[in-house]
């Protein structure tokens, strides 16, 4: 029995955000993005003032959990607070703590769940496309400069 292909779509939700260290600073431009064909991942585009935007990708489950309880052990951590949802981002050279508007984050969560409910991710994930991509990537060269095996 074949199942109909799910409809693939994208979601972009602007999120009001401020730097936790200096809420008086101009707002951080932030936007959550979600693609139904990559159902386990969310993107977050961030920019401050006129600086170029920075894109972070992390698991949707972090956002789903982080609106209600602390979550994250690596570069991305979320937890609810009185002012909103706190988002900690740790890069190689710097870190930032943002406060995201809880209503905006909730809106993103509701809409992403409407697109792809929890448990239905495998119906949307394009695993065949990823496997095809992997098979086209060149293999690393395993020979020494003189042609002998490493």
UniProtKB/TrEMBL annotation:
InterPro entries per the UniProt record, alphabetical: SsgB, SsgB_sf
Major place of residence: other
The species this protein was found in: Nakamurella leprariae
Keywords in alphabetical order: Cell cycle, Cell division, Septation, Sporulation
Coiled coil: none
A Pfam family matched in the record: SsgA
Any one biological process term the GO annotation gives: sporulation resulting in formation of a cellular spore
Cellular location(s): Cell septum
Family to which this protein belongs: Belongs to the SsgA family.
GO cellular component term, pick one: cell septum
UniProt-recorded name of the protein: SsgA family sporulation/cell division regulator
Keyword Membrane among UniProt keywords: no
Top-level division of the source organism's lineage: Bacteria
């Amino acid at each position: 029995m074949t199942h109909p292909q799910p409809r693939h779509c994208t979601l972009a939700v602007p999120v009001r955000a401020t730097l936790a260290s200096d809420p008086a600073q101009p707002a951080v431009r932030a936007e959550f993005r979600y693609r139904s064909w990559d159902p386990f991942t969310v993107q977050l585009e961030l920019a401050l003032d006129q600086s170029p935007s920075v894109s972070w990708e992390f698991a949707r489950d972090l956002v789903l959990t982080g609106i209600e309880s602390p979550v994250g052990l690596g570069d991305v951590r979320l937890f609810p607070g009185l002012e909103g949802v706190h988002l900690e981002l740790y890069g190689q050279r710097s870190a930032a703590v943002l406060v995201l508007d809880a209503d905006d984050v909730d809106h993103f969560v509701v809409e992403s769940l409407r697109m792809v409910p929890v448990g239905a991710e495998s119906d949307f994930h394009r695993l065949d496309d990823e496997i095809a991509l992997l098979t086209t990537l060149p293999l690393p060269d395993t020979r020494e400069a003189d042609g002998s095996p490493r």
